[in-house]
Design goal:
With 204 residues, the chain is mainly beta. Among the domains are: 10-75, Immunoglobulin-like (Sandwich); 136-202, Immunoglobulin-like (Sandwich). 0% of the residues lie in helices and 49% in strands. The strands form 4 sheets. The protein has a 4-stranded antiparallel β-sheet, with no helix packed on it. Strands 10-9-12-13 form a 4-stranded antiparallel β-sheet, with no helix packed on it. A 3-stranded mixed β-sheet has the order 4-1-7, with no helix packed on it.
Length: 204
């Protein structure tokens, strides 16, 4: 180790490594094992080499300043191992079967919504209109001296001598007066709507 001569300026050099236990060479001279602290080293620039088993050696340059402490930290990297490969027996070539192509399923048909049946018309009840009321009129009959009144074959009054009135449909009607001893007489009368037809039958 280059100790400083008496009267010259000197400094301190501290060396650390990861991992510890590295051999430190100062200008190619082994000076110790890390962690290492060197006192009273002459000021100047030095080349340091650190070596540790299983790791790559590290070379670095550092300077020592008079009256100061210089610290140096070194990180080692793993040394790459040399692997020897021995020739092996040749093997038969392996035939690689390519994978079968993946089958793509056919596209699914889009389901169409079922068509709705046409709406069924609900039968509406037929409105039966009543037939129009037939137009009518009034028939007033008087028999002299008296008798039975028959209109269109229907007897309306028996042995009466007073006026007999009835409502009949519009149109022609057969009016007959019957007397037990004087006989009978028949006339045709037309009845008009909303009016009164007067008939007097004399059997004398």
């Amino acid at each position: 180790m280059p100790d400083a001569p008496p009267g010259e300026d000197a400094g301190t050099l501290a060396v650390y490594s990861f991992p510890n236990g590295a051999t430190v060479y100062l200008d190619a001279n082994a000076v110790g094992i890390t962690p290492l602290e060197l006192d009273a080293i002459a000021a100047g620039t030095y080349t340091l080499t650190l070596q540790v088993d299983g790791y790559n050696p590290v070379d670095t340059v550092t300077s020592v300043t008079p009256g100061e402490r210089t610290s140096l930290v070194v990180f080692h990297e793993f040394a790459a191992e040399t692997v020897s490969l021995e020739p092996t027996e040749s093997l038969d070539p392996v035939q690689v079967t390519p994978p079968l192509p993946r089958r793509t399923p056919p596209p699914r048909e889009t389901e169409r919504p079922a068509s709705r049946p046409p709406p069924v018309a609900t039968p509406q009840p037929e409105t039966t209109r009543p037939p129009p009321a037939p137009a009518t009129g009034t028939l007033a009959v008087v028999v002299r001296p008296w008798g039975t009144i028959v209109v269109d074959g229907t007897t309306l009054a028996r042995e009466t001598d007073v006026q007999h009135a009835t409502t009949l449909p519009v149109g022609e009607h057969r009016v007959r007066a019957v007397h037990p001893t004087l006989g009978s007489r028949e006339v045709t009368v037309t009845v008009r709507p909303g009016t009164t037809a007067h008939v007097e039958i004399d059997l004398n």
